[in-house]
Amino acid sequence: MFEFLTTSGPALLFYLFALMAVAGAVCVVSMRNPMYGAIGLLVCFLSIAALFLLRHAEFVAVVQIFVYGGGIMVLFLFVIMLVNLHRLHETTMLGNYWRTAFVVSLALVAIFGFLFLKVEFGPSFEDPSKFVDALEPGMGNSEAVAWKLYREYLLPFEIASVFLLVAMVGAVVLGRRA
Amino acid sequence: MIDPTEFWLLAPEIFLAVAAMLLLVAGSIGRGVRNRPAAAVALLSLVATALLVLWAYGKGGSSEAFLAGMFVLDSYALFLKLLLLIATGLTVTISGRFLEEGGYRPGEYYSLILFAATGMLFMVSGYSLLSIWISLELMALSSYILAGYFKRERKSNEAALKYFILGALSSGVLLYGISLLYGATGTVHVGELAARLGDLVSTGEQPILIAVGWLLLAIGLYFKVAAAPFHVWTPDVYVGAPTPVTAFLASASKIASFAILIRILFEALPALKADWQLITALVACISMIWGNLAALTQDNVKRMLAYSSIGHAGYILIGVLCASEEGLWAVLFYLLAYAFITLGAFGTVIILEQREYAGETYSDYAGLARRSPFLAASMLVFMVALTGIPPTGGFFGKFYLFAAAVEAGWIWVALVGVLTSAISLFFYFGIVVQMYLKPSEDTTPRPMPAVGLASTIAICAIVTVLLGLVPGPLVELAKASLIPLP
What we know:
The complex is a heterodimer of chains A (178) and B (486).
Chain A: H1 2-7, H2 9-30, H3 34-54, H4 58-82, H5 98-118, H6 129-132, H7 141-152, H8 154-175
Helix pairs in contact in A: 2-3, 3-4
Chain B: H1 11-28, H2 35-60, E1 62-66, E2 71-73, H3 75-102, H4 106-125, H5 129-147, H6 154-185, H7 190-203, H8 207-224, H9 234-240, H10 243-268, H11 273-296, H12 301-322, H13 325-352, H14 368-371, H15 373-387, H16 393-407, H17 411-436, H18 451-469, H19 472-479
Antiparallel strand pairs in B: 1-2
Helix pairs in contact in B: 1-2, 1-4, 2-3, 2-4, 3-4, 3-10, 3-13, 4-5, 4-10, 5-6, 5-10, 6-7, 6-8, 6-9, 8-10, 9-10, 9-12, 10-12, 10-13, 11-12, 11-17, 12-13, 12-16, 12-17, 13-15, 13-16, 13-18, 13-19, 15-17, 15-18, 16-17, 16-18
């Protein structure tokens, strides 16, 4: 019993959190009350953070919780509380397009499902220690990300800062009274 | 490893971004800047950026990527950067009227145009899928905001929203493709990606991952250049956006998107050449046929020009799919000619436009030859050029593209191109017939348009005709600006 848990513990945890992430995502699109939808989204975000942890990506996991679980969720909740939501109950989201949407999403699920069944992606999760091999000895996860980000990927990082400035300007320009 | 002195070679991009930020600050102090000084500052900074581009190329121009392999300053990037700066400059000169009459703030407008141009400069120099993607997003985000700049008009709001949602979707598709290719090869660097894909393709490893990855990547790029069947956003966005912004999207934005499409197909995916040639041929034919047939049925000139822009994306793709030297320089020639033609045509539309999107139908052009011979003559030049009739740059552009296709053995694609060009005669000359043969109810002469607008249209018309009379120098320039063939 316990042997089973130690040998396939990571796998069990993976399936648990993956299931929670999917359940959260289904919740987001199916709940009528947007507040429940937002909670579902939070469950989805946190489970994905746990999945990152299982792959030894501690830095990404923490960022996922800070940015998505923290910042973006607060924004969503603000919007939900500020916007009058009673109107949402009366409209159907896709209208007459739901059949097309259903067929298209089924086709996409089939294509990507086939893709992910067929392809071997990197080391499997049964042996997470392999993920650490990519780092230099004695280097932590955040340190490795920082070295990559501020040296190799410095240029995209800097362009992203201009990008965020434009996003902010855009919010002000479009939000201001005409 | 990055050598700090390499940052000097980013001087043009950094300068342009700083100029955009200064305009932004100037626009938000007190009552903001007026249109003319803002436009003058924007123009001057574009000129200075062009000089810096030349200086940077002289200092460190080579086909070797630097800044940890993220940035490349080859002659291809030089040609496109100068072309993009010219197109952006012409957009600035045709924007004044709409800002002054609508009472919209010019500071933010011009700074967003400059931010979009910064993104474009980074795009054409990008040598890593990551830096290409993020600079593409910088350009796209600025364009979404500009498309919604007519805040009081519902059509403009609609355009911005549609552009944003479909643009975000296509960026997502693009990124998904990049991530799958990264999963297969472990790199986003264009050169390394090409080498590893070559190994994987020759050993037959990971075929599904590579196929789905590059297809998603290519579909994202076809979205961005507005090629059918990925064009659904184009007509509504082009009609709803403020006309100078539409001109910007149809010229500069399209050029930058084609630049990265070619860079990625030629330099990152040479191992899959046969596959992408076939898909590009299909997309090119669908774009030419659909764009030109749909343009036949329009009565709004902006909408007609939107469908014509889809058709022209198809013509340019002909040169891309040849994957030959002739095809590539023909594309560069066509991009330059097309930029001047579109900017001129949309400039003329701006003059005839009145508030709330009036003055955009074919019948509004009736009798224009009597009322304003200058406008009618320049519109005639642009319509002739778009059809591809000599003596205009449009003729040589199409001629070189079709010749390259025939030489590379894609005769059926060239045939579709010739046939759809013949169809396009009907809707382009619909305007000419209105201008010269139909009488107008209103026969008062039109007042001369503002100097900036009129001189931009004149410059575009003159360049269009000059390219049709002496295409040689530009051909030589384009021939000197090639990238390695796949």
